[in-house]
Amino acid sequence: MLCILGIYALTGSAQTPQPKDTTDAALAQYRQMLQEANPADLYVAKGQALWAQARGPKAQSLRTCDLGLGPGVVKGAWVRLPRYFSDTGRVQDLESRLITCMHDIQGFDEQELIDLDFSKGERLTIAQLAAYVSSESEGMPFNVPQTNPVEREMYAIGQELFYMRAGTHDFSCASCHTQDGRRIRLQDLPNLSTPAGAGFAFGTWPAYRISTGSIWSMQQRLADCFRQQRFPKPKFASPATIALSVYLGVNASGQVAQAPGLKR
Amino acid sequence: MSDPMRIRLQSQGELTTVKILMSHEMESGQRKDDSGKIVPIWNIQDVIATLNGKVVMTAEWGGGVSKNPFFQFVLKGTKAGDKLSVTWRDNRGDSRTDEAVIS
To answer: Which of A201, A221, B14, B91 reaches 20 to 30 Å from A181, CA-CA?
Structure first.
């Protein structure tokens, strides 16, 4: 119950659960009102400007960044991530791929980007870029590839991590996210082993979080899930968090991308 | 420089609903940072909307308004082609103006 993914996603979509009672109906109305004013849109605009801006030691823009569909193609790239990239020889999610581009094209120090705190400096840049890139896939169905053996291996690792019980509370992601119609306090718990639940969760991050007044990426969401499970802090864009993203992304196959979302 | 506002207009007859999303930190002046020092107040104080140059709405804001504020109001007697201009000014003297045309 600690790994709360995509609880406050937007209403009006196919995969949003129908209100069960008056509380749910009131929450649905609340989200509907917020949807018209999602501050994530402000971050999308910032991310779009940052994408085209010449930055970093090499003073280059990211217009030549290859997110999997060829250099500079942003539209539809996000619903096909994470995927295997032959130039780096590993499976990368959006954020780790952005790090690769910021290093290769703009000359940023890769390790520095990884070691920074979430929402600080260039890491905020990455979150804003992620908001922009994800918004360019809005309304498209997820199609995370499983053609390469490495991609299939990452799915298997992600699945194992999802069901792995550990930590002081003997918890796993699955402890709370493999049942339908459950909630913690007022938050619906999506069943991440189903397409609808995985689409609902994976398809709404990056998101604007009202409680923190900032944009949160998928990597930050997962890192916080680890914290809530009392697990050690995962490294940013580590193979473990990417494997979990592969697991969620593949489970979300065919579900419609709605990011950037709006969360509590 | 401040980031652009997002202005959306929905017209029905001579009524236009204006929805504005502003990008601003809106520090209340009550909050403390990690070292315990008060974060200085920094927020939007005035919002002015004009329609074809004529002031149609003014608002005075303070520390109770949230970060990245959303602001909605309804204008009467509008017609297609009318130009709406919205300006905010904060306590640091910074300001931002954005425009939208009613369709």
So the answer is: A221
Domains in chain A: ranges and CATH: 22-263 (1.10.760.10)
- Examine the predicted complex and report whether its ipTM is higher than 0.85: no
Task: Indicate the length of chain A as a whole number.
Answer: 264
B6–A46 CB contact, under 8 Å: no
Chain A residues in contact with B6 (beta carbon < 8 A) = 41-42, 45
B3 vs A contacts (CB less than 8 Å): 42, 45-46
Helical residues (DSSP H) of chain A, grouped into ranges:
22-35, 40-52, 94-104, 110-115, 122-135, 149-163, 174-177, 195-202, 218-228, 239-251
A167 has a chain B CB within 8 A of its CB: no
Domains and CATH numbers, chain B: 6-101 (2.60.40.10)
CB A117 within 8 A of CB A123: yes
